[in-house]
Structures are given as C-alpha cells and as structure tokens.
From TrEMBL:
<dbReference type="InterPro" id="IPR030679">
    <property type="entry name" value="ABC_ATPase_HisP-typ"/>
</dbReference>
<protein>
    <submittedName>
        <fullName>Amino acid ABC transporter ATP-binding protein</fullName>
    </submittedName>
</protein>
<feature type="domain" description="ABC transporter">
    <location>
        <begin position="13"/>
        <end position="257"/>
    </location>
</feature>
<keyword id="KW-0472">Membrane</keyword>
<dbReference type="InterPro" id="IPR017871">
    <property type="entry name" value="ABC_transporter-like_CS"/>
</dbReference>
<dbReference type="GO" id="GO:0016887">
    <property type="term" value="F:ATP hydrolysis activity"/>
</dbReference>
<comment type="similarity">
    <text>Belongs to the ABC transporter superfamily.</text>
</comment>
<keyword id="KW-0067">ATP-binding</keyword>
<keyword id="KW-0813">Transport</keyword>
<dbReference type="GO" id="GO:0005886">
    <property type="term" value="C:plasma membrane"/>
</dbReference>
<dbReference type="InterPro" id="IPR003439">
    <property type="entry name" value="ABC_transporter-like_ATP-bd"/>
</dbReference>
<dbReference type="InterPro" id="IPR050086">
    <property type="entry name" value="MetN_ABC_transporter-like"/>
</dbReference>
<keyword id="KW-0547">Nucleotide-binding</keyword>
<dbReference type="InterPro" id="IPR027417">
    <property type="entry name" value="P-loop_NTPase"/>
</dbReference>
<dbReference type="GO" id="GO:0005524">
    <property type="term" value="F:ATP binding"/>
</dbReference>
<dbReference type="InterPro" id="IPR003593">
    <property type="entry name" value="AAA+_ATPase"/>
</dbReference>
<dbReference type="Pfam" id="PF00005">
    <property type="entry name" value="ABC_tran"/>
</dbReference>
C-alpha cells in the first residue's frame, strides 16, 4: 500500500486530558490527542483499553466527564461558562455530530430500506438536500465503494462486507470533517475483510481525515500517519507507525504486539 500524505498541519481534532468513567470504573484517564486535516490516526490496544469509549466521546455518543475535545477549534458538547462546564443544547450537539461520521462494528443499516435509501436518508433528513441531489450523491458513493449495481438491494440481500461498504458510503456521503471507524471488520468473515479495508485505504488516499480503531495491525501500519497505543485508559506510546511497531518502548505494547504471531519481527520478546 502507498501511504497518503497528510494534507495540512492545521489541527482538526484536539483532545485535552479527556476523562470518562462508568460508575466507579475510570475508563479514560486523561487522553491527549491531536490530529491534522488529512491525517489517518489509529488507536490500538487490548480490549478494555478505552479505544471505543474515546471514539464515542468524540462523536458525542458518550459524555466525557472532564477535559475537552475540539473539532476545528470548536469545543464538542460543552462550553465553559463563568468557569463552569455547561452542556450545549441538543440542537447544537446535533449540528456538531453531523460534522463527524462514524462507522460501527455492526452495520446498523435499516433493514426495510434499500442500500441507496440507507445512504440517502441522512442527506435528505439531516442535511435537507433535495431528493434529486441526494440520489446523485448516493449513486456517486455507492459507485466509489463498488456497489453501484447493488443500490436497489436490501441489507438481507447483501453480504456482510457489502453491508459494511454501504455503511461507509452512508457516512462519507454526509461530507464529515472527520470519519471514525470502530473495528469495522470485526463482524466480518475473514474473506470479506480485504474488500472493506480496500475502501478505507482508498478514502485515506483521497485525503479523508480518519480516526481508526482496529486490530488489523498490518493495515494499521500501512495506512496510518500516526499510531496511538492505549493501555488501561492512558496513552502509553504514540508516534509514527515505524516507531510504534519497530521500536516499542513500553512493555505493555511489546506484549500486545507479540500476540500477532511474530509479524513485527519478534517484538513480543522482551529485550
């Protein structure tokens, strides 16, 4: 794969000391992360390390308890007013969420709608686009993900990989500033994984800004500009893929990479 070049140094996403707890369990313990427009950043780590929770906080599906997350310099979900943290109105939150696309582990397609109608729904209902324009946008993106001939098919008539590609088309069609991927291949049979990763690779090469959570380590290495290893709710190591995969400085990272059958040159063995 040819890794895309980052488009600009302007910060698009900034997370500062983000905390999140569920009851007495602190899941995020002060996450810092900065992304530039056109970058692909991947979060890696063991299950329970906080990767998905962080994505859900970025997309306002979960409320972070402390710190702040900014998109294009605009605080997401909250404002500081007279020194106190205040949640934005639902109208403002919805407007912010529309700027961030997310593709989930499960496809979350509406079973009673065709592939095309699934993609069109947000364009007409959320963005208010005329149906003719929405149809054109839908046809473009279904074509981009290789499903032009499946536009009239219902989810039950599509393979898992095809359904996930519809979900990707639905997210990208909304023209988000940032696209989040949460383990989008984890529910797929192994032979269908490559077709979905190919779509994500093509989006990366087109300059889409993406934040990925994935256990597809070779893909992460090839597609990412920056890799962040989370361990127990903290950033344990981050850097360029070559730094993270070839020179792990953290014992937990070394152990984590060692699970992948030695594909990173035996980094699982403690040096």
């Amino acid at each position: 794969m040819t890794k895309p070049s980052a488009a600009t140094d302007l910060p698009l996403l900034q997370a500062r000391a983000v905390h999140k707890s569920f009851g007495q369990v602190e899941v995020l313990k002060g996450i810092d992360l900065t992304m530039r427009q056109g970058q692909v950043v991947s979060l890696i780590g063991a299950s329970g390390s906080g990767k998905t929770t962080f994505l859900r906080c970025v997309n306002l599906l979960e409320e972070h308890d402390g710190g702040e997350i900014l998109l294009d310099g605009d605080p997401i979900g909250y404002r500081m007013i007279n020194g106190r943290r205040r949640r934005l109105s639902e109208t403002m939150v919805s407007a912010q969420r529309a700027r961030i696309g997310m593709v989930f582990q499960q496809f979350n397609l509406f079973p009673h709608l065709t592939a095309a109608d699934n993609v069109m729904l947000g364009l007409t209902k959320v963005l208010g686009k005329p149906k003719a324009e929405a149809r054109d946008i839908t046809a473009h993106w279904l074509g981009r993900v290789g499903l032009a001939e499946r536009a009239g098919h219902y989810p039950y008539q599509l393979s898992g990989g095809q359904q996930q590609r519809v979900a990707i088309a639905r997210a990208v069609a909304m023209q988000p500033r940032l696209l989040l991927f949460d383990e989008v291949t984890s529910a797929l049979d192994p032979e269908l994984v490559a077709e979905v990763l190919g779509v994500i690779q093509a989006l990366a090469e087109s300059g889409m800004t993406m934040l990925l959570v994935s256990h597809e380590m070779l893909f992460v290495r090839d597609v990412s500009h920056h890799v962040v290893f989370l361990d127990q709710g903290r950033v344990a190591q981050e850097g360029r893929p070559s730094e993270v995969f070839d020179n792990p400085q953290n014992d937990r990272l070394r152990s984590f990479l060692g699970r992948f059958h030695g594909i990173f040159g035996g980094v699982g063995a403690k040096s």
